[in-house]
Amino acid sequence: MKYYIKNAVLPFIYLFFMAITALGILSIGDNLLWLKVILCILNLGLYEVIACAYAFKLGQDALKVRSANDLERKQIIMTGEPRSLKLAEEYKTYKGFIIGLMTCAPLIILLAVHTVIILCGGGNGAGVASSIIYLVVYSFFRLGTSAAVTAYTFYFALFALPVIIVPMGVSYYLGGRKIEMQHKKIEEQKRRIYGDKN
């Protein structure tokens, strides 16, 4: 769990930077709605590029750790000597999706708290907090609308779940896949040069 939380911190921090930009975009007058839409798309696009590049690099690093662990496992089998393995950092296809989910964990928690509060007849504090933190996505639902914000409007922020989790998971997978293909290419070159001898 510590590994996932640690690696979700950076994409979560970038949400704040994108939220500040989104606030600026929403302050533009509704007579320039087309500009607001374009800027919101660019803001979300920039976040996706940053988060996906980060997840891609994590996938690459994790596959390198798995390769190093595999060498250590061979030594353990050959010598019987106990060796330490970095299991938490090792590549697994699903890990990128979990890191994305951990980035969205505050959203889920805040909206769960918000639900309990509104069921008890309370205010919208947790809902407001969730919409501000994930404004990079929620801003699309406030474009050109003068409709009043209700207790249920904040649930639109849940669209951040697929928008963040899926691209990060896919990017992590592709990062690992790139290193895997490089390793296969090296192995093929070795086989061409040295034959099937180990």
Number of strands: 0
Which descriptor suits the 3D outline? elongated
Strand content: under 5%
Percent in helix: over 70%
Q: Give start-end ranges of low-pLDDT stretches.
A: none
Secondary-structure-derived class: mainly alpha
Number of contiguous helices: 7
Order of secondary-structure elements: HHHHHHH
Largest sheet: none
* Terminus-to-terminus distance: 38 Å
Mean pLDDT: 89
> Radius of gyration, Cα only, in angstroms?
22 Å
Describe this structure in words.
- This protein has helices spanning 2-26, 33-79, 95-103, 105-119, 125-133, 135-138, 160-194.
- It has 198 residues and is mostly helical.
- Helix 1 packs across helix 3 (95-103) and helix 3 runs antiparallel to helix 7 (160-194).
- The radius of gyration is 22 Å and the shape is elongated.
List keywords for this structure.
7 helices, 198 residues, 0% strand, mainly alpha
Structure described in brief:
The protein is mostly helical.
How do the helices and strands line up, and which of them pair or pack?
Elements lengths: L1 H25 L6 H47 L15 H9 L1 H15 L5 H9 L1 H4 L21 H35 L4
Helix pairs in contact: 1-2, 1-3, 2-7, 3-7, 4-5
